[in-house]
Amino acid sequence: MPGRAFTGADIRWAKSVRKPSLEEFVLGLRGSRIQAVQRRAKYILLPLDTGSTLVLHLGMTGGLILQHQDQPSHPMVRHCFFLDDGRGLCFLDPRKFAKLWLAADASEMFRLLGPEPLEAGFTAEVLARALAGHHIPIKALLLEQSVVAGLGNLYADESLYLAGIHPLRRAAELSGEETTRLRNAIVAALSGAVAQYDLGRADPSLEPPIKLIAWTIPRKLGAPCPRCGGPIAGIRVRGRSTYLCPRCQI
DNA sequence: AGTACGTCCTGATCGC
DNA sequence: TGCGATCAGGACGTAC
Fold it and tell me: Dihedral angle at the C-alpha atoms of A134, A125, A240, A155, nearest 10 degrees?
């Protein structure tokens, strides 16, 4: 895709466009050339030769398909970005949770994001500083993108399970040893999911990819904990469904 | 300032 | 078996 230019865009669900206005978004895209495809946290970035950046957030259920413009599009395609080679970058989004931006300054847009958990800068010390002074449940803090960039609800549960830490523990009250365990668990959960996804990509029939991820902790009430055999519990933390093992996570 | 919660959406799943 | 009700969640706005 890098090197291709946009000839236009068909935005079928206007609410997805966050900034700027729909008109400016479409006008700003037309004729601009894609320079690269990048990622920051849960955002996909397409820097353009105009200096602006097309930013995509897939939400929970979003996906991208590159196909010829005359091919019939899937009914869940909410938008299509037309390329100058006759193809279209189609944006599937059944639940309409995805978001689009045309950012004049992408670095400004991501100024408040925390460290990338799979990069070297994400150390136990960095995590410890992020937790300090916060009295909210550790699970709620893990979902703050300013603390760790890119952790979602299921990954937070998985990380806390692997670390043996109860999701309702107050963030600032974790010991240094627990913080290190949590840091390592976050890295393990994410890199494990990436590895599973890469394996699954070899077989497109296994889509959607989220189904590929085999979580260590069962996301089912009463299911046996793989570590101790006890029943998995379900609670809500800040309105988010949360699964844990009350015996292993303290 | 720090914390909590409602809102948007619709496919999948649950319970009667 | 069928159908209506409920659940799921990322980021932002609003409220306390």
Answer: 180
